[in-house]
Amino acid sequence: MKLLYVLLTLCFLTGCANTGSPVLKKLSESDVNLKIHPGKTTRAEVRSMYGSPLKTSYTNSGLEIWVYSYEDTTGFNVANIASKTFTLGVAGTRHVGTKKELIILFNDDYTVRKFNMSEAPIQKGTGLL
Question: Are 116 and 65 in contact (CB under 8 A)?
Fold first, then answer.
């Protein structure tokens, strides 16, 4: 019985993850709207508030784009637990959670041109599930 308990506990703890920019974990769209102002907020100010971006790219015209993202699938929910419990993870796992993403486009003078903060539910899985 103890062995079964240990195995189930390990199954619950494996595979759950938070990935990305932890600074986004507690941020909401309204929080970001209060801090970033197009035409005024600079690239240096964004870096001091949120740190370095996870991804940097450029538009065809050379404008810089920063992307911050954060995925949280560590929540205690039936889908995450059931996929591990009933198959002990052998048939795969399923993770349900949320993804937050902040995308910022900068002007040539390194002020914010546009930005978007979004939060959406996500599902990820491996194996048969």
Answer: no
